[in-house]
Amino acid sequence: MKKGTFKLLACGLVLTTFALTTSCSSDDNNKEAEPVNPITEGRWITVAGALMQTDPGDGNGGTRIYSISKEDAINPNISVNVFDNGEGVQSNRTARLQSSVDGNTLFNITYTGTNGGEFMTYKVNGAKNFVKSDITANISQYAGTSPRWVKLFDGDKTGVAVNVTAPVVVTEADGKTYKYTRGSSTVLSLDLQKSLISDYRQYEIPLTTAEESQGHHIFRLDAPTLNKAGDKLIIGTWMRKTNPLTGANEPSFDRLGSKSVVVDYPSLQNPKVITSTVGFGDTSGYRSFNSFVANDGNIYQATQRDAKKGSYILKINQSNEYDNSYVFSLDTALGIKGSYIDAWRYAGNGIAYAVYTYEGTEQGYLARLDLNAKTATRVEGIDYDADLNFGQYQGFVVDGNEFYIAVTPVGKDGNIYVIDIPTGRVTKGAKLINKAGNHYIGVF
Questions:
Q1: CA-wise closest residue to 431 among 13, 180, 76
Q2: Beta carbons of 165 and 182 less than 8 angstroms apart
Q3: N or C: which end of the chain has fewer CB within 10 A?
Q4: Dist CA 165 CA 220 (whole Å)
């Protein structure tokens, strides 16, 4: 959708982000709404598919990619077969891909294997024509061969990778009395344009003495987000608990409030743990963004792995603290129990989209979220299927007023869907050809 041109009419004009409304002229009524997000003319839409390794849907057999135009992406008469016609991405298992804002570059850090932790870029030229960069950067000696990472929303300048070494049990001087469990954390910034490490910091991140004495600890970090001021990173956590009596991991435990780690940026120093009293799930997400700076300047963050209360959307204010007056339960909003947000994306003007499942089913669904009203509705117009699983889903594209998502059940054909952000109108786009055991994990 192209940016409309507006003029002030003497008869009166009401302009909102979502629509232009006036009754004075049929010409003005035909003008297009101001786009919610910037538009990239000629943007490529790259689809990614994950191959089965041993079990259907495990996605551990590698990743393939294929690019089409926006016009083809929204065309149901177009078919894409990434598994037969696409190009492989360097990764021993499922690649964790990011794309530039204009869709012309893909960023990748190899996940596991002999070259795990190697960062490279791919120039997108359409179809299976991807040109891998000659310059790479290997971060494995700092962040391991399986780093979690995302691109910051800073104009494609920076990526941040994070890692926690396997937490170890520490005892008191007597060698018997449990003290705490900790791993060593790494936060590393990458210059995406020059393909080099900008900076890194390594430190232990303690919880309170009372929390640690009970065995609570940070098991994983993921999904860093740069705040509006550009001076802090908010990093999601995945929490676990050690049994202080046995030293063994407790698979089930009473969860603490949701936690994030705040570090100074760009120095990456002074880690501080903040805690929500609203949510109790983890804030690390899984292979995708999990926090976003909204138009109001606050950060909104999803939670996972809280079987009792389901997923929440939490709010972190511009003082980099949780706003515990903001309560947005996906269970309550959708009228379900045990909701779980696999991945989500802020789309602009308080609207977001989330793929989720809930108690009693493994099938995935898509919901439209209104962060301001704290409401959610299941998106209709999608071909839902019992084998639809978004557990490894990674990539959405937001361009102008359009939100793109790939929807394929495991081992079955599916489609790209394009949703008009202001209205929620759903358009069924290009067909995605699948193969047994495989699934598509995103558009970029």
A1: 76
A2: no
A3: N
A4: 8
Q: What share of the chain is helix, strand, coil (3-state, %, to 5)?
A: 5, 40, 50
Query: In 34-56, which positions are buried (b, 16+ CB within 10 angstroms) versus exposed (e)?
Result: bbbbeebeebbbbbbbbbbeeee
Q: Is 85 left (phi over 0), alpha (psi -120 to 50) or beta?
A: alpha
- The per-residue DSSP string of 291-358 comes to EEE-TTS-EEEE-B--TTT--EEEEE-TTSSB-TT--EEHHHHHT-SS-EEEEEEEEETTEEEEEEE-
Phi-psi region for residue 128, left (φ > 0), alpha (ψ -120 to 50) or beta?
alpha
| 315 close to 298: Cβ distance less than 8 angstroms | yes
Are the beta carbons of 95 and 86 closer than 8 angstroms? no
Whole-number CA gyration radius for the chain: 22
Q: Give mean pLDDT in consecutive 10-residue pieces for the chain, a chain of 444 residues.
A: 37 37 40 81 97 94 97 98 97 92 96 92 98 96 94 97 97 96 98 97 98 98 98 98 97 96 98 98 95 98 96 98 98 98 98 98 97 98 97 97 98 98 98 98 98
pLDDT for position 92: 84
**pLDDT score for 34:** 84
Determine the Cα angle at 221 with ends 207 and 306, to 5°: 80
Distance CA 58, CA 262 (A): 33
Neighbours of 346 (CB within 10 A): 23
| Closest residue by Cα to residue 94 from 430, 393, 422 | 393
Can you read off the two tokens belonging to residue 286?
């899984």
Give the dihedral sign, CA 417/419/424/427: negative
Burial letters 170-196, b for 16+ CB under 10 A, else e: eeeeeeeebebbbbebbbbbbebeebe
3-state SS class at 56: coil
Neighbours of 111 (CB within 10 A): 25
* Nearest-angstrom CA–CA distance, 140 and 117: 5
pLDDT score for 180: 98
- For the chain, helix (H) and strand (E) counts, in that order, are 6, 34
**Residue 112 DSSP class:** S
Peptide bond into 266 cis (omega under 30): yes
